[in-house]
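Predicting holo structure, fe (ii) ion bound.
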Amino acid sequence: MTVLPYCYPINVVDEANGTPTIPPHPLGIKPLGNKYFWDGQDARKCLGLLQVLPDEVIMQMLEFLDPKTLRLLGYTCRFLFACCMSDDLWKTVFLDKVPLELFTKNIPAANQIDRLEDMSYEEFAANWSKKPFILTKNITAWPVTSQWTLDTLLQQYPDVVFRAEAVDWTFKTYYDYLKNTNDESPLYLFDKKFAEKMGLTIGKDLPGAAYWKPECFGPDLFELLGAERPAHRWVIIGPARSGSTFHKDPNATSAWNAVIQGAKYWVMFPPSAQVPGVIASQDGSEVTSPLSIAEWLLVFHREARRTPGCREGICRAGEILHVPSGWWHLVVNLEDGIALTQNFVPEAHLSSVLSFLRDKPEQISGFRRDIENPYELFVERLRQERPELLEEALRQLGGKKRRWESIVNGDDGEGEGQPQKSGFSFGFGFGDDELEEEIP
Ligand SMILES: O=C(O)CCC(=O)C(=O)O
Ligand SMILES: [Fe+2]
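Done. Tokens:
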């Protein structure tokens, strides 16, 4: 932000005496922007010694002031009045102070995300794979991760380097940041290599396992891809007010998100909903939500709550939330906290995932660079391991019998409907580490 263009009529100098002048507007209109500055002298003189600082630095210094000081300082001179009136400064000050409870309490009964103690896979497959829900009694059995707190992680992993958006920080550095930040959109620690970095074993029957996927979600068909599966699990750590702006999960996968410490407020919408304040391009490749989470809540929450399909809920420590394939979601941490999340492909969404991989190759994300054709790879693995599911999914996709036959016979060459090499991927996209693994 620069104030400079408003405080000097820099381009115009009276040639006779060398002082700046403003040429009169042909209609006698005086620009409001100069109102507080121009009285024939340098308006910045009132800054005293601080005159040596450029406008940008002054503005940055003002960001550290509390609302009262900002207001009082604005009364001291014209120049500072204009600086202290900046919308950006007040937005930051104000959004920081808006209590999140304004939005998270009094959830209308019709919007409340269903809460269930636990669920069998049969129930999930029959009734729940296309609906969000919160499991309230599920992760207490996890031997290691259910005991995690920010403080125990600090003790055990102070020097492990984690990815937080575009930066790699030791846990100690991130912990200090988390405890001290006032950022409006705080840096979110979101690391997909955490298991390797922390030396964790994941999987129910493995010796020394730290945690495992909840049984109710059943078989994850991306497991057929083995080492070729796209990034699929993350540890997520952030301070209160951090979170995720509206998005759909990558590659049409479903997800579960387990809160280990803290509490998360979720707002969700079904795949075809028009989410207030969120503009998605026709093919879904670009999502524009010009606002931070706090701004979205302030401006659009009321309307969202009244929009058909809106689901809301608070997932607390020890609980797990299900995000069905294709659902929009915004998440905000109500407290400092830790979560574990995993993306998966349940049978009920196989056709959506195949259709995404086949028809939106430019939006595929999270696969290793050397995997040129994720759709073909997945079809091949399904053909080998689960041909009956593949047949049914392709049928749902509107695939013709002839096409199915050619796939099972292994003679499906480079024919129609094959995905092209992609050039762009819309995924979690936090920084260049993600880009490395995307399809070039
Ligand atoms: O902030 C969160 O915990 C939600 C994360 C999320 O939506 C995701 O991992 O896709
Ligand atoms: Fe998500």
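The two ends are 36 Å apart (CA to CA).
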